[in-house]
Amino acid sequence: MIDYAKIELHAGNGGDGAVAFRREKYEPTGGPAGGDGGDGANIYIKATNSLSTLEEYRYKSKYRAENGENGMGKKRFGKKGEDLVLYVPVGTIIREVSSNTIIKDLKKNGEQFLIAKGGRGGKGNVHYKTSTRQAPRFAQKGRKGQSIEVSLELKILADVGLVGLPNVGKSTLISVITKAKPKIANYHFTTLDPNLGVVKVDKERSFIVADIPGLIEGANEGQGLGHDFLKHIQRCKILIHLVDISGLEGRNPIEDFKLINKELKLYDEKLSDKYQIVALNKSDLDYNENYKKFENEFKDKYKIFKISAATTQGIKELIDEVTKVLSKIDEEKYTLDEEINESYLQNYYNKNMENGNLEFYKEEGIYVCTGYRIDKLLERVNLDDYDSRMYFEKKLRDMGVFDKFLEMGIEEGDSVAIGDIVFDYYE
């Protein structure tokens, strides 16, 4: 089972605006006619129940969305890039790699999340015509799309998790109570992937069971299958702790039970709070009355059932108890949610854009400054208002925009393009 992947995402770049002029026979005055570039495509991640692993991302790690088309003459706009949607199983956690911060936990079928936004298309020269500049030969370049490296981690969403040592009969039990067909054999680690099955209680009630591969001592430190599957237990509402009560392999059922609970607690303290139902399997082979010893030890803390997955003895009583507990359980308490940093992604992109500094260049005699901070500044000012214009000029000076232009050789009367506006420079 592939339940982890690391991928790079690059949203589409915006198309460049066009420099063009009308030259039709019956348009003697002509004029600028360069259209805008199309916006770059966004990247979304969407959860679906139709997938159960992250297999698709095992062999491909880089994804690029479409760029927007460049603008064209006759005021024709470039086409917007087609958004890219990446599908993942329900229960997938998205982390930003460098900080290991969880930015999204996709727990619902159809839930969609914007992970990288495409760059905005550049303005064509049709936008820069003024009373003193009738034939502008300047158009805005398209912006780059956002990029991010994330890890995808799948944690199974199930109502009930089957836990226990290897070879205690978890695969046999899930095959009996559901239509799942796991590989079953009498040796350790038969199950190498979690198996999911649906238990149909009646026409209206059902629940999902996950057979978690057998744990061993040291699992919390990565021994055996270790962390690979302990994480899946975190999402289960309740646990059925399966114990081989027969003792035929020379093990002590009481010590086995304590061992697994110790591993769960060491991996995540909150797992010890999960509601557990104890199922003593292979009870038809209990020749040493291990059941009585086990019951005396734990009856005050756990609901205990004698079962035999092989003969189906006690299975109905176990299912009835699970159904009753699930109907009353507080999901918020027992379904462990991840700690998600809701504002991290916005801050991540803002920081990247700010740290990337502003972009300066000279084109067709016009000094140009573009960048995220310029866009945000233009959103806050009203250039028809005197005080707002003074604030705008002060912020440009604080950003070092004019100092940079002076380094580039700007002189009084030269044209300046800041974002979507063009004006003449005077000290």
UniProtKB/TrEMBL annotation:
GO function terms (MF aspect): GTP binding; GTPase activity; magnesium ion binding
Compartment(s): Cytoplasm
GO cellular component, one term: cytoplasm
Gene3D superfamilies assigned: GTP-binding protein OBG, C-terminal domain, GTP1/OBG domain, P-loop containing nucleotide triphosphate hydrolases
Limits of the OBG-type G domain: 158-327
Residues the record lists as binding Mg(2+): 171, 191
Domain OCT: 352-427
Record has Magnesium as a keyword: yes
EC numbers: 3.6.5.-
Residue stretches making up the Obg domain: 1-157
Keywords: Cytoplasm, GTP-binding, Hydrolase, Magnesium, Metal-binding, Nucleotide-binding
Binding sites annotated in the UniProt record for GTP: 164-171, 189-193, 211-214, 281-284, 308-310
Pfam families named among the record's database cross-references: DUF1967 (PF09269), GTP1_OBG (PF01018), MMR_HSR1 (PF01926)
Cofactor: Mg(2+)
Matches recorded under HAMAP family: GTPase_Obg
Record note on quaternary structure: Monomer.
Described purpose of this protein according to its UniProt entry: An essential GTPase which binds GTP, GDP and possibly (p)ppGpp with moderate affinity, with high nucleotide exchange rates and a fairly low GTP hydrolysis rate. Plays a role in control of the cell cycle, stress response, ribosome biogenesis and in those bacteria that undergo differentiation, in morphogenesis control.
Protein name in UniProt: GTPase Obg
Lineage, top ranks: Bacteria, Bacillati, Bacillota, Tissierellia, Tissierellales
Gene from which this protein is expressed: obgE
